[in-house]
From TrEMBL:
Domain VWFA intervals: 26-205
Family annotation (SUPFAM superfamilies): vWA-like
Pfam families from the UniProt entry: VWA_2 (PF13519)
UniProt cross-references to InterPro entries, sorted A to Z: VWF_A, vWFA_dom_sf
Residue stretches spanning the membrane: none
Protein name: VWA domain-containing protein
PROSITE patterns membership: VWFA
Amino acid sequence: MAILARSFAAAILLLSTTTFGFAANKIIIILDASGSMWAQIDGKPKLEIARESLRTVLQSVPAADEIGFMAYGHREKGSCDDIQLIVPPQAGSASAISAAADSMKFLGKTPLTAAVKQAAEALRYTEDKATVVLITDGLETCGGDPCALGKELEASGVDFTADVVGFGLTADEGKQIACLADNTGGKYIQASDEKALQEALVETVAAPAPTLEPAPAPAPEPAKSEFNFMPTVVLAEGGDPVTDGNAWEVYKAKSDGTRGDNITTEYGDYKANLEPGDYIVVARDGEAKVEQKVKIEAGQVYKPLFTLNAGTLILHPRPSQGADVVSGAAVVIAYPGVGNPPTYYGDTKVVLPAGDEKVTVTIGQGVVTETIPLAAGRVIDKDIIVGVGHVLANAYYAAGGDKADGSGIGFKVLKAKKKIDGTRDEVTYAYGPDSKFDLPPDDYVLIATVDLAVVEQPFSVKVGEFQDLKVAMDAGVLAITAPGTSKIEIFETKKDINGNRKSIGYAYDEKYQAAIAAGDYAVVSEKSDNSKKEGTVTVKAGERVELTVQ
């Protein structure tokens, strides 16, 4: 990874003598923050790959280039209006973009068409050259038409370009959104893994401009007046100034002393020339914020100090002592004054208001809650041990035989201890081969299902231990053909006291294939005229048997 990062950094440095996008200094990167970004590529969530790729590419971008950052689907589930320009286009925005991406939730829908439209408008695409780089792992889910939007923006823009990076999309899916890039003269790039995504970001965000004749040197600008507003923010009284990752919001103050229009939002070390008047200034770092009223008078210089009364919490969620950090672990921090606690994932570093921080970490079905006292100016770096064991479950037709790897495979985990009514509490479930579970220490029962075959297997979990559960289904595969029939039904051969046979499974088709427990069965085929034919069959564990009923 380090070698890859250095190679991309070198590539960007070689391009640092050019401007982004040729004759346009402003770009907005749009990141798909929908729930589908939790899907994994090579065992790693796509959202983590996107975060790391952004951080790698942006670190070496020349400071003069103005880049903005927009996301959709990161605040609400099921909302097509969840689109936000988080970092407006500005120079030196790399750290702000990385910080925004690192703290982002991934849970919503995919309104990519509306997001591109809003980004174009934020760049004033009808007045200036504008470039939007869209990173998406899914197709439009909010009714927008990306192809039509591309034509509209191309027709009404001064020089608008949309580059689209299809992250983990199939070739057919990519064709459905490539038109957005094609219709604006942009590029569509298919990125199937981490290396391809970083290459795509270098090509779109840091692509070199054509060689041009040097522009005439601009006339000297008149000397700017001295800054009249130079605020400083600290985490605690007497602490060092915070100049990285923090934000400043400046509002006009209304006559009643409340916030009016937002004048600007800046990041890092902030200095400005403000017009005389009354303002409300908010200083933020992580989840901590403080605001002050400021009155600017002509000819005066103001250097207010903002004290956040906050500390830094660094958490490493681990399933057991000494185990690796789980990147998908959910970390919920209820800090003083918050109503809706934010959720972070994996390694978490965040600035929080001083006080008792209630931290809840979830790995699989394991949950642990700790209260951590955090003093202003302090940095607490600690592991959070959830205490789970790891289970890998697979079904085999017979002990030592073939592994079941088709459809119809499911696993359900129940508590081993029965309740007073004889039932057991369900803990979790999963589908398909190689199903993985992270479980607290306890005794459990695994119910494995392969088509019509069902087997229970008890097991126990200890913290930090790995179990490879190989469930022997004692089943075979029964393939039935009944030409001209409308229904095939499988029964147990043994009848109950009333003379009825238990139905095991059925299909409305001329063919029916399913895994089934070893044993003797009766197969009945039924035609549309209600006439029936019956056959019998014996299924052996680990074997395939074919039966024709006609």
